[in-house]
Every structure is written in structure tokens, then in C-alpha cells.
Amino acid sequence: MMFMKAGFSDRIFINSSVFLWLVFIVIVSVIVSQQGMSHTVTPSYFFGADLWMQGKDLYDGSGRGFIYLPQSAVLFVPFAYLAKLSFSVAEVTWRIISLLLLVFALWRFANLVEPKLIARAFFIITITSIPLVFSSARNGQFNTILEVMMLLAVCAVAKEKWCYATFYLVLGLALKPTMVVLLLLLWALYRPLWWRLPIGLLAIFIFPFFTQTPIYVWHQYVNSMAMLKTASALGATTTDWAQFFGLLAEFKIIISQRLQDFIRIIAALFILYCGVRAQKKFNKYQVAIFLYTLASCYLMLFNSRTENNDYGIVAPALGLFITVFFVHSYILMLLLVFVFLGLVMSGNLSFNGSREFWSAPFFTVIFTVVVIAQIFYSKMRNTIFKTE
């Protein structure tokens, strides 16, 4: 419908975006079909789904390998079956589905801005997303589908479609535990979710019991909690992760796991406070944009196991704010373009040529500060974003 109503210049932006995504999907599909077992994590997903079907333990206690909830193993069973017929077909199918859903979610996200900026926002979000999601798309990581669920959840909240929001939040949590950041943020801020989310969480909790014996399912739940604890500790005690404490480690500032957890809690409470301030100052569409941005930045900076290729999750927010500042502030727009270029180069900004983990969190800190400043000090209000 929106495509049909678009003017000439808008159609150029939209058609260019669609073309870029189609080319990108084709390129990723060709690469994946030829790469075999290299640059892919989906064998871990296939293996987890196979273990579930066989009634065997999903977790080995190392905090590596299959580090997701039991539900994700169940949901990946169709792809595991397809992989038995053709590994390449299963690999390519997973990428195509994930990326097509991402394009749809990005379009919905772009529709949160003022109508005259939607096409331009979609184009700029496309430009910022493609290079930042490439690694995750090639590897087949759950990051892409997690990003989809986060985007659709905030869009549903903006339109006050609470049951849809609940569905996206609990499905995202089932696929990847880090969805809990946005889930808790929205749960705390929106009263209609206070009773809907417990029902959704109960439904997703019960779901695996229909696919395996109750004793086995319960055993996997217990093991998954131990796995999450081990995986988190592994991330907190090693410095080769692209998160805030990895950034500090580059400056020889090593923080204990207990203090890291305390800082995470304080940061989470501050993000919640920022959300409350945003609700008081902006309309529901603007608030949804800010909440996605705050949650994605917090996730990148304070998840103990953030990798450089996880930062594609920040890309839609970055692209949207570049669009907004194109109208509102060229200085801030150029600053965010600088942040974008830094994220594209992240992992390679080292003088000795070795892999580095400081740049992605460093540039994300800059972006986070800019966004929080808009919540507390901006006078934009309803002049740029979509109005009621």
C-alpha cells in the first residue's frame, strides 16, 4: 500500500533499497552454497535439533556450542530435517527466510518516522544494515532473526498491538536468550504487557513438553540454566569479546565479574529511567524508536559474549537516526556517519594487524550518548518523527 502511494523520489529510494537487498540475498546465498562447513554456525543448531529429536542432552557444560534455550532446538527441527536431505539447501533456505523477514521488519521500523521520510529512512537503514549484518547472515547466526523479533516487537508496541508484541517478544526469547533485554524493558514500561507476557512466557515454557518426554524436557531446562551461567562467566572472565568491559580491558582496566554484574544492573536501571523520560517527552512512535535503540545498545555493550558481528542489531537504529539528523542536525548526522564507518571497520582497527575488540563498543558508546542526549535535551519532539 505504501509503495503504491509513494511519489517519484520515494519510489527511487524504495526501489533502490529493494534492489540492494535482492542483490545482497543472492550474494549471501551463493557464498553460503559454496562455503561448506566454513564460516557457518548452523551445524550447532542442526546438532542441537538432532539431539532434541533423539532425547539426548543439549549441553556439554562448557558454555560453548549450543548455548540457547531448549525451545530453539525444537524450532530448528524443520531445518535439521532439511539438512539431512541437503546441507546446502538447508543453509541457503535459513538465510533467505531470515533476510526476507529482516527486510520486512526494517520496512515496518522505517514507518515509525514522519511519512515524508519513510522511503529515505528505509534506504539509509538499508545502507547501514547490509554491511553490518553480512557476517551474521553468512554465518547463519540467530542474530538476524533476533533483530527481526526486536524490530517487530517495538513496532507492535507503537501501534498498541499488545498480543502481537507479546508473540514477538516470547518467540525472540525462545530463539535467543538475549531477547530478555528488550522483553524486560517493554514489560516494565507498558501496563498492557504486564499480564500478557506472563501468559506468553508460560505458553513458550510449556511448548517443548509437547515434543518430548516431560522428564527429558525438565532436565534440559535445568541444564540450560547451568549453561547460561557458565557461558556468562566465560564471557566475563575473558577479554576477547566486543563489549564494554572488553573495551576497558584494552586500556588495561580489568573488572571482576561481580563488579561487572553490578555495573550491568546500574546501567539497566538507567536505561529504564531513560525509557520513562522518553515516554513523558515523545509520542508512542518516537518512544518505540528510542526503546529499540536503547535496548540494542545496552545489549551490545553489556552482554558478556558480544561479538563484532553482533552489531548488525544496532544498524537499523543508527540508520534511522542518521535520517532524522539529516533534517535536524548535520553535525550529529556526520557524527553518526563516523560511528557507522567505525562499526563497519570494527575488528580491524589495530596497529599490529591482529583482531581487536575495542572499536565496536567504543563507537556504540558514542551512539548511545548521542541518543540519550536527545531524550534529555532535544527539543525535536514532534517536528521530525511520525506524529500521532
How would you concisely characterize the structure shown here?
This protein has 388 residues and is mostly helical. Helix content is 73%, strand content 0%.
Helix content: over 70%
Give the CA-CA distance, first to last residue.
20 Å
The major sheet is characterized as: none
Radius of gyration: 20 Å
- Mean pLDDT value: 90
Q: Which structural class best describes the helix and strand composition? A: mainly alpha
- Total domain units: 1
N to C succession of SSEs: HHHHHHHHHHHHHHHHHH
The number of distinct helices, counting runs of at least 4 residues, comes to: 18
Shape: globular
Commentary on this structure:
With 388 residues, the protein is mainly alpha-helical. It has one domain (2-230, 237-377). It has 18 helices and no strands. The protein has helices at residues 2-5, 8-35, 42-54, 70-75, 77-85, 87-110, 118-139, 143-158, 162-175, 180-189, 193-206, 214-237, 244-250, 257-281, 284-302, 315-328, 330-345, 359-377. Helix 6 (87-110) packs parallel to helix 8, helix 15 (284-302) packs antiparallel against helix 18 (359-377) and helix 16 runs antiparallel to helix 17. The longest helix is centred in the first third of the chain and has 28 residues, at 8-35. The mean pLDDT is 90.
Q: What's the SSE blueprint?
A:
Blueprint: H1 2-5, H2 8-35, H3 42-54, H4 70-75, H5 77-85, H6 87-110, H7 118-139, H8 143-158, H9 162-175, H10 180-189, H11 193-206, H12 214-237, H13 244-250, H14 257-281, H15 284-302, H16 315-328, H17 330-345, H18 359-377
Helix pairs in contact: 2-6, 2-7, 3-5, 5-6, 6-7, 6-8, 7-16, 8-9, 8-15, 9-11, 10-15, 14-15, 15-18, 16-17, 17-18
